[in-house]
Amino acid sequence: MATKNMSYDHPAYISRLAHAFPALAAGASGNTSKFVAFTQLQILAAVFSITTAGTSTSTLYNGTATVTNINGDSFSVLRVTNNAAQGVAPSLSTATYGPFAASQYNGTLTGTQTNAAGVYGSVALFGTATTGQAQAGAPTSTGGFTAKQGDQIYIVRGTDATAVTAFALEYQVTPLADVTQ
Fold first, then answer.
1. Which sequence spans correspond to the domains of the chain?
2. Backbone angles phi, psi at 93, to 5 degrees
3. Cα–Cα distance measured from residue 8 to residue 71, given in angstroms and rounded to the nearest whole number
């Protein structure tokens, strides 16, 4: 398969794209399907929409501050990456971004928030950490995190057994990354 790259300001590099995951049924700790990076990408945000309110209360970071999240959901974004050189046995590592509150005000207000069906929002992802709890409220640089070609990204829901939440990733192709011709 032939690949090419284009000028740094080509529309393929400056457009924002989204990958919507198939909806998860109610149940604690459900995983979305895996999104595989088709080239080098910047994963910019996790987007959520609550379709059925939960019954749990949690105190979690929502992208800006720690909030008390009532009847909400929580989630983490996971990235599995191969750190080995091409042609060498895989050496996988996992980075966890979160946990986050899928909260009514999605990072713009703090305090106690009661969620209901129809609540939606996004949590911007930050890119300085590569392993562990990469975003537990610590200040980091904005602009998403880099996913190498072949990285697998998925979302894991929290422990609420009744909440139903739909998720998507907002991403952008890294300028000068190879794309299929």
1. 29-175
2. -135, 155
3. 44
